[in-house]
Design goal:
Strand content: 5-15%
Number of helices: 13
Number of domains: 2
Bound molecules: nicotinamide-adenine-dinucleotide
Helix content: 40-55%
CATH architecture of the largest domain: 3-Layer(aba) Sandwich
Strand order of the largest sheet: 3-2-1-4-5-6-7-8
Distance between the termini: 29 Å
CATH superfamily of the largest domain: NAD(P)-binding Rossmann-like Domain
Largest sheet: 8 strands, mixed
Number of strands: 8
Length: about 300
C-alpha cells in the first residue's frame, strides 16, 4: 500500500515538500488554514511540475499531481500518515501552537520534521507529550530543486526516529545532513553566515564592488561548491591532501580570522550602497522574474548533476 505523508503549512516551502514526497511515490495530504493558499497550491504545483516535465526532471507529472490532495483539517491530513512535514511561519508561538495540535493527533512511530530555519525543536516541543517524535528537518528553498536537508534532533528526540527520518529523506531523493545537537543557525546558515559576514565587511571597507564579490563566488568558489564541499576542496588543493593544505595555509586563515575578531552588525550605510548597486543591475519590479530565472537555472543544474552522476 502507498504510504502517506502530511504537509502542514503550504507556503513556499510546504508546497515544495509536497512535490518532493509525491514525486517519490507517496500520497501527500496538505493542510493549510489559509483559504487562498489551499486554492493556489494545486495550481502552483501543476505549473511547477509542467515545467519539470519539459526539463525532463519528472516523466509522470500527472501521476505526481494526482498523489497530492488538500485536507480540510489537520486531523484529516494526519490520519494514517507515517511522517509529518511542518512548514508554518517561523515564530515560536505559531510553531508551538501547531506542535501542540499535531502532538494531540500523533500515533506511535509517526515522525514530525519541522522546516524551521533557525528555531531549534526544543523551543517549541518541550511540553508535547510525544516530544520524542519531533525534530527539525530544515530544507533549502525550493526543496524540490535543492536536495539538502538538515536533521536536527532536540535533546529528547528518539535517536531511532532520527535514524529513520534520515533513511526516509534518502529514500525520497533528498540529501540528509545530521546535526548531532542543536546550535543556532544549524550548519548551513552558519556556513552561509560566515561568507556573508565577510562579504559585507569587505564591501563596507571598500575592497570591491557587490558585483565583483558576487562574481568571486558565482565564477570562482561556487563552481566547485556545486559538487564538493570545503573539506574535499582543500584535500584536492595541496599535493599531499588535507594535512598538507592545513600545514601550508592554516596560518593565513588564522590571521584572517584574527582580523575579524570584533564582528559588527552589517552597517546601514553599506546596506544602502549595496541596494543602490543591485537596483542598477536589477530593478525592484524585476525581482520576481529573476527568481523564476534562478529556479529555472537550478532545475537545469539539478538535471545536469543527475545525468552526470554528480549527486
Ligand atoms: N522561504 C525559505 O527560504 C525557507 C527555507 C528553509 C526553511 N524555511 C522555513 O519553512 C517554514 C515555512 O516558510 P515559508 O517560506 O514556506 O513561509 P510561508 O509564509 O510561505 O508559508 C507559511 C504557511 O504556513 C501556514 N500556516 C500558518 N499557520 C498555520 C497553522 N496553524 N497550520 C497550518 N498552516 C499554517 C500559512 O498559511 C502559510 O501558508 C518556516 O519555518 C521557514 O523558516 C523557509
Amino acid at each position: 500500500m502507498t504510504e502517506k505523508v502530511a504537509i502542514v503549512g503550504a507556503g513556499l516551502v510546504g508546497s515544495g515538500w509536497a512535490i518532493v514526497f509525491a514525486r517519490a511515490g507517496y500520497q501527500v495530504s496538505v493542510f493549510d488554514p489559509s483559504p487562498e493558499v489551499s486554492e493556489r497550491v494545486n495550481d502552483w504545483i501543476s505549473w511547477e511540475l509542467t515545467e519539470h516535465r519539459e526539463l525532463g526532471l519528472v516523466d509522470n507529472a500527472d501521476q505526481v499531481i494526482d498523489r497530492i490532495s488538500i485536507a480540510a483539517s489537520l486531523e484529516e491530513a494526519l490520519k494514517g500518515a507515517v511522517y509529518v512535514q511542518e512548514s508554518v511561519f517561523e515564530t515560536i508561538p505559531v510553531k508551538s501552537e501547531v506542535a501542540k495540535a499535531i502532538d494531540a493527533l500523533l500515533k506511535p512511530g509517526m515522525i514530525v520534521g519541522s522546516s524551521s530555519s533557525g528555531i531549534p525543536a526544543s523551543k517549541f516541543t518541550e511540553t508535547c507529550k510525544n516530544r520524542r517524535q519531533f525534530l527539525v528537518a530544515h530544507p533549502v528553498n525550493p526543496p524540490h530543486l535543492i536536495p539538502v536537508v538538515e536533521l536536527v534532533p532536540a535533546p529528547w528526540t528518539d535517536p531511532a526516529l532520527l535514524a529513520e527520518c534520515r533513511v526516509l529523506m534518502e529514500k525520497i531523493g533528498q540529501v540528509p545532513v545530521t546535526v548531532n545537537r542543536e546550535i543556532d543557525g544549524f550548519i548551513l546558515n552558519r556556513l552561509q553566515g560566515a561568507l556573508l559576514n565577510e562579504a559585507w565587511a569587505l564591501y563596507s571597507e571598500g575592497y570591491a564592488s557587490v558585483q565583483d564579490i558576487d562574481a568571486t563566488v558565482s565564477h570562482g568558489l561556487g563552481l566547485r561548491w556545486s559538487f564538493m564541499g570545503p573539506f574535499e576542496t582543500i584535500d584536492l588543493n595541496a599535493p599531499g591532501g588535507i594535512t598538507d593544505y592545513a600545514r601550508r595555509l592554516s596560518p593565513l586563515y588564522h590571521e584572517i580570522a584574527l582580523s575579524r575578531s570584533q564582528p559588527e552588525l552589517w552597517s546601514q550605510e553599506a546596506i544602502g550602497k549595496a541596494e543602490q548597486e543591485r537596483r542598477q543591475v536589477l530593478s525592484a519590479d524585476a525581482l520576481a522574474d529573476r527568481r523564476s530565472w534562478r529556479d529555472d537555472k537550478l532545475a537545469k543544474l539539478s538535471m545536469f548533476k543527475r545525468e552526470n552522476l554528480l549527486t
